Every structure is written in C-alpha cells, then in structure tokens.
C-alpha cells in the first residue's frame, strides 16, 4: 500500500507516559527562564488517600445509633499532658497555620470569625499575631517557626497554645518564602524586614539542632507562659514514627503530622511533588509511636494535609488521630478559586480551581494577597459565616458516619470500622483489603 494513500488506516499520535505534555511544558519553561517553578496548592499527583477507604456500617454484628434520638459527641481537649489550661474544642477540626503576609488581614480575620463560631481554634502561621486575628479567634494557636518573625513573649502569653513548627507537609526539610510584592509596610514592620524585598526563612531553628535542644526550648516556652499553654510540635510527613517519638520525649503535649497533600505553603514544585509521604501513610505510624510510649490519647495527635470532608475527618479519627487541621479547604470555603473571578484567573494564565500562584500576591479573591484593592474584595464577616457553615457540614458528616458504625463519639471510631479498596491504601492504613482479612505485610487471607 502506498505510504501516502489517504484511504489507509491512520495511526493515532501516542504521547509518552514519561514525557507527557505537562512534563514537556515544564522542560520548555525551565529552558526559557532558567529558574525553578514555585507554587502552592500541595501535591497534585494522585496518591493513596482517604477516598481509598470505606466504613463498615453497622448491620447485624454492630448496632447503629439513631441520629434523631441518640447523641454522638464531637468535642476534643488538646494539651492535657502538662498544660494548666488545655484547649477545649467543640469539634475535632482546627484551622491550620497560614500567616498574615501570605494571607490578607481580611482573610485572617475571616478564619478567626469562622473558627470561633464553630467552636474550634485557628493558628497564626509565620509572621506574628495580628489584632484582628486575636480579636476574632476565641482559641488561637501561636506558631513558633525558624524565622521567629514577629515572635515576642507578650504575644506568646496572649495565645491559647504554642505550636513549634519543625516542618510542614508542603516542604519537609525546606524553608519558607515570601516575595517582595507581599511585604507591605505592615508586613515589613511585623516581621522586621525591608519593604518589598524577597524573604526566605531558614529550614531549621537557629538555636537548636536536635531533640535534646527541642526539650530545652519547650521548657523555655513553658516558663515564659507559666506552664499554662499546651505546646504542640508540628512536623512534615517523612518519618512519622521516629518524629512522633522524639516530639513526645521532648515534652510535647500535642503532635501535628502534616502529609504531603498539605499545600498552603508556596515552595518549589519539585519539593511539593517529590518530598514527603501521603497523609494516609502517616497516621498509623504516628499512633504506633504513641502506643509504644503508652501515650496514645494522653498526647493528642492532629493530622493535616488534604482534609476535605467529614468522611476524611472520620477516617483520620478512626485511624487514631484525635483531631484534624485544614488549610487549603478553609481557603476555598472563604472564597479562594471562586469561579466568579474566572476572567481574572484567566488573565493570570490560570483558571478557577487550578490557581496556585498564591506567592505572587495577585489573588483575585483577595485572600493570598497584600494588595489593598484586591483584599477589599473579601468581606471577613461573610467569609467567616461561610467557613462556619463548612465546618458545621464536615462535623455533621463525621457524626453521621460514626453513628452508622454504632459510636456515640467520633473519637470512638477505630481501624476495625474501615476496609481499603486498594492494596496500597490497605498497606498504608494497616486495615484489611475489602472483602478479605489481608493487611499487606501482616499476613492473613
């Protein structure tokens, strides 16, 4: 048959699974600019996640609770180990640390308003405490990071808890970044930085290099705050068993594990996609460490990174967490990536639902920006109401699932209530593959 015979069957073009269009576009971008890509939004690759687990609702062998007549409680107390004043929350869903600087003052205020209405806590993030956030947050956790931006004993004492940040899910082992266009007069004053100059913070604390030094630092923080405040230690998901063990031995009241889907921090794309492990793989390892030390439930475990729904919350609690923390989902709830700004997202070379250049400070929604005109777009009162609604729905969903499993408290959910739909999820969560008693690596059929 002639090669140019138009009647011959046509072979469809085949894309490489290695050199995909996205990979090729990144190669061309790198070749044109000579700089690595920076973004937020967390890992975008598909990894085993909570969707790969299902609950075993009660039927014959378990007795479900009637939602209209029988209670299912959601309260949780954090910091019961050493703190004189543990934090009492109405729901097991907290707001993760996102700084003023990365976020607008209006966004920080909205997070405080919504968290307070829902009966939970919010967290300062890097860069210090704003009056709006403290004024609207009934329970506020102060993050103590390597940069120490804005850190002072007065604000430490104003906080309800202190979170020592060793690492976070977007970049375990990596430092922070805030571009000059987001360092306004106010941000510069709070952080003692020059206005308009790019800032990069260290990847480790300047005054300690290991768990022994961390123990000393925790004691210093307790002395500064009169042993009143719970001390959290937050780590990015890398070696959850050992990191949890060391945090507990250093004296932490609460351990926070942030999986690789945690994405409110902007950093190199290569970091986001290739450093850290999925949230699902962290929980049982951290719980095992706590159990080995006889500290499970005495030292509370908070899990973050890709939490989106009440089902995710319930599954994290069933695997042994005491509470979860949300960041990206909270931003979406208050208005981030809203399709009503689609034309402006398009003008930035993105689209609603995919916009992740939060570090550039041009967010049309007025959330991840310091541009006063853009920030005015966000009404903190309305945004706070939306966040409260979202937290209420998540809590109701978690309660519904707990009742279906016969539990009168969401924290009574347990691994035996779950099975996995994939071998990978079964291995990570250490629950049986659906329809079998087989947990990969643990035998059974």
Account of the 3D structure:
This protein has 445 residues and is an alpha/beta fold. Helix content is 33%, strand content 12%. It has 15 helices and 16 strands. An eight-stranded parallel beta sheet has the order 5-15-14-12-11-8-7-6. Strands 1-13 form a two-stranded antiparallel ribbon. It has a two-stranded antiparallel sheet with strand order 2-16. Helix 2 runs parallel beside helix 14 (380-404) and helix 7 (240-249) packs across helix 9 (279-292). The longest helix is centred in the C-terminal third of the chain and has 25 residues, at 380-404. The radius of gyration is 23 Å and the shape is globular. The model has no long low-confidence stretch (mean pLDDT 92).
Number of strands: 16
Strand order in the largest sheet? 5-15-14-12-11-8-7-6
Ends distance? 56 Å
- The stretches of 5 or more residues where confidence is low (pLDDT under 50) are none
Tally of individual helices: 15
Specify the structural class.
alpha/beta
Rg on CA atoms, Å = 23 Å
Report the major sheet.
Answer: 8 strands, parallel
Percent of residues in beta strands: 5-15%
Spell out the key features of this protein.
33% helix, 16 strands, alpha/beta, globular, eight-stranded parallel sheet, 15 helices, 445 residues, single chain
């Amino acid at each position: 048959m002639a090669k140019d015979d138009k009647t011959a069957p046509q072979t469809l073009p085949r894309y490489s699974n290695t050199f995909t269009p996205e990979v090729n576009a990144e190669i061309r971008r790198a070749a044109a600019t000579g700089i690595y890509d920076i973004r937020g939004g967390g890992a975008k690759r598909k990894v085993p996640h909570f969707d790969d687990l299902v609950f075993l609702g009660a039927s014959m062998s378990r007795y479900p609770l009637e939602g209209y007549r029988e209670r299912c409680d959601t309260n949780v107390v954090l910091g019961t180990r050493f703190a004189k004043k543990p934090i009492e929350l109405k729901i097991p869903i907290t707001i993760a640390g996102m700084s003023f600087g990365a976020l607008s003052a209006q966004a920080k205020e909205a997070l405080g308003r919504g968290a307070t209405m829902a009966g939970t806590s919010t967290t300062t993030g890097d860069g210090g405490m704003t009056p709006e956030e403290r004024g609207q947050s009934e329970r506020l956790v102060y993050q103590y990071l390597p940069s120490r931006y804005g850190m002072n004993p007065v604000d430490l004492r104003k906080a309800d808890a202190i979170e020592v940040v060793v690492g976070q899910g977007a970049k375990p082992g990596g430092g922070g970044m805030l571009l000059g266009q987001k360092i306004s007069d106010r941000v510069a004053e709070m952080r003692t930085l020059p206005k308009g100059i790019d800032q990069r913070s260290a990847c480790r604390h300047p005054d300690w290099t290991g768990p022994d030094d961390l123990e000393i630092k925790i004691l210093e923080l307790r002395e500064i705050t009169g042993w009143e405040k719970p001390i959290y230690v937050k780590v990015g998901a890398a070696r959850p068993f050992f990191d949890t063990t060391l945090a507990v031995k250093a004296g932490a009241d609460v351990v926070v594990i942030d999986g690789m889907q945690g994405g409110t921090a902007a950093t190199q794309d290569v970091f986001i996609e290739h450093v850290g492990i999925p949230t699902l793989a962290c929980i049982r390892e951290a719980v095992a460490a706590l159990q080995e030390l006889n500290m499970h439930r005495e030292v509370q475990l908070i899990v973050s990174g890709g939490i989106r729904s009440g089902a995710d919350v319930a599954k994290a609690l069933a695997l042994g967490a005491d509470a979860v923390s949300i960041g990206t989902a909270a931003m979406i709830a208050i208005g981030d990536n809203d399709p009503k700004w689609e034309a402006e997202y398009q003008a930035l070379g993105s689209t609603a639902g995919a916009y992740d250049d939060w570090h550039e400070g041009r967010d049309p929604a007025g959330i991840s920006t310091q541009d006063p005109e853009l920030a005015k777009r966000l009404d903190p009162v309305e945004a706070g109401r939306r966040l409260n609604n979202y937290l209420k729905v998540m809590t109701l969903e978690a309660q519904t699932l707990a009742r279906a499993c016969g539990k009168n408290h969401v924290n009574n959910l347990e691994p035996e209530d779950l099975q996995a739909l994939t071998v990978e999820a079964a291995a990570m969560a250490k629950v049986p593959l659906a329809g079998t008693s087989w947990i990969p690596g643990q035998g059974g059929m």
